[in-house]
Specification:
The protein has 303 residues and is mainly α. The protein contains 16 helices and no strands. It has 2 domains: 14-151 and 164-174, Orthogonal Bundle (Tetracycline Repressor, domain 2), CATH 1.10.357.140; 178-303, Four Helix Bundle (Hemerythrin (Met), subunit A) (Up-down Bundle). Helices cover 78% and strands 0% of the residues.
Length: 303
C-alpha cells in the first residue's frame, strides 16, 4: 500500500545519528511534554513550600515522571500511526512516513518507561511511582486504545490522565497527596477539553476521514463551540479555587483573572463564528503555562 510505513521505509537510506535522534524525540511530542514537565515541576515546587524536601531527589523524580510521560507519548504514536497517516497534520511523523519502524519506537518507549519508573520509584517514593504507573496506563491503554476511538467524550474522560502531572510532582516532593494538588488537577482537567476541541474544530474533516468520533465530527461545530464556552466559564471558576482555599494570594488572582478574560473572549469569538479555533488553541497552550507560572511565582515571591 503506497504511503504505508512498511512500503515507505525502504525508500529511506539509513538515517544519520542526528536524524534518528530527532525522529525519536518527535515521538515524545516535545511541546506537550514541556507542559507536562512544567505542571509537574510546579506541583513539586508548591509542595516544597509546605513540606521539607530533598531538592536533588525531587529533580530526579521529576525527570522520571517526564520520561514516563515521553514513553506514553511514544506508545500513543505507535498505536495511532495508521491514523496519523490519514491526517495532513501528522502524516509526516516518522512512523507513518516510514523513517522509524514500530519495533524501534516500541524499544524506545519501553526504555523510556522503564528508566522513568526506576527514577520515580527510587527518588519520588511509592505514592509517586504508583500514581505515575496508573497515569501511564490511563493514557496509553484506556484513552489511546479504547476511549479515543469509541466516544466523543474521549477528551473529557481521558483528560484525567493528562491532568495528573501536578499531582505526581506534588507526590514526588511531599510523599503524600492533600487537597492542594487536587485543585491543580482540576485546573488542567477543565482546561483540557476546550484546548483539544479548539484543535479538533480546525481538523474535523481529517478526524472524520480517520473515523475518530471527535466532538466536532459527531455533534457539529456549533455545539462544540458552545461546549468550549461552557468549559471556559468553568475554567475561570476552577482556576480561582487556589485563592479561595488559601493556596495562593491576590497576585495569582489578578493574573488568573486576566488570563481567563482573554480565554473567555476567544471562546466568545469562536462561538460567534469570528474564529475557527486556531487562536484559542494557540492561546490555551500559553494559558496553561502562564497560570501555573503564576501559581509558583505567587507562592515563592509573595507568600
Amino acid at each position: 500500500m503506497n504511503g504505508s510505513p512498511s512500503s515507505s521505509a525502504a525508500a529511506y537510506p539509513r538515517p544519520s545519528p542526528r536524524r534518528l535522534a530527532r525522529d525519536l524525540l518527535s515521538l515524545c511530542k516535545p511541546r506537550v511534554l514541556a507542559l507536562i514537565a512544567l505542571t509537574a515541576a510546579v506541583g513539586a515546587g508548591l509542595a516544597a513550600t509546605r513540606h521539607p524536601v530533598a531538592p536533588v531527589s525531587v529533580l530526579l523524580a521529576l525527570a522520571g515522571i517526564t520520561l514516563v510521560a515521553a514513553s506514553a507519548a511514544a506508545f500513543n504514536c505507535i498505536v495511532e500511526s495508521w491514523i496519523d497517516a490519514k491526517m495532513k497534520r501528522t502524516r509526516a511523523r516518522p512512523l507513518p512516513d516510514g523513517r522509524l519502524t514500530r519495533a524501534q519506537a516500541a524499544a524506545f518507549s519501553a526504555l523510556l518507561g522503564a528508566g522513568g519508573m526506576l527514577l520515580t520509584a527510587r527518588f519520588g517514593g511509592g505514592a509517586a511511582a504508583w500514581l505515575t504507573a496508573a497515569t501511564f496506563f490511563g493514557y496509553a491503554v484506556i484513552y489511546t486504545l479504547f476511549l479515543k476511538n469509541t466516544t466523543p467524550q474521549n477528551i473529557v474522560i481521558g483528560g484525567a490522565s493528562g491532568a495528573m502531572p501536578p499531582v505526581l510532582g506534588w507526590a514526588a516532593a511531599a510523599g503524600e497527596i492533600g487537597f492542594e494538588p487536587l485543585l491543580l488537577f482540576l485546573i488542567v482537567f477543565v482546561w483540557t477539553p476546550p484546548h483539544f476541541w479548539a484543535l479538533a474544530l480546525q481538523r474535523r474533516e481529517e478526524y472524520a476521514r480517520a473515523g475518530l468520533p471527535m466532538l466536532p465530527v459527531t455533534h457539529g461545530a456549533a455545539f462544540t463551540a458552545d461546549m468550549i464556552l461552557l468549559y471556559a466559564v468553568a475554567l475561570a471558576a476552577v482556576s480561582l479555587l487556589p485563592l479561595a482555599c488559601g493556596m495562593s494570594g491576590i497576585p495569582y488572582a489578578a493574573a488568573a483573572t486576566a488570563l481567563n478574560a482573554r480565554f473567555l473572549h476567544l471562546a466568545l469569538r469562536l462561538r460567534s463564528g469570528k474564529d475557527e479555533g486556531n487562536r484559542l488553541f494557540a492561546y490555551s497552550v500559553a494559558y496553561l503555562a502562564a497560570i501555573f507560572a503564576a501559581l509558583i511565582i505567587d507562592a515563592v515571591a509573595f507568600s
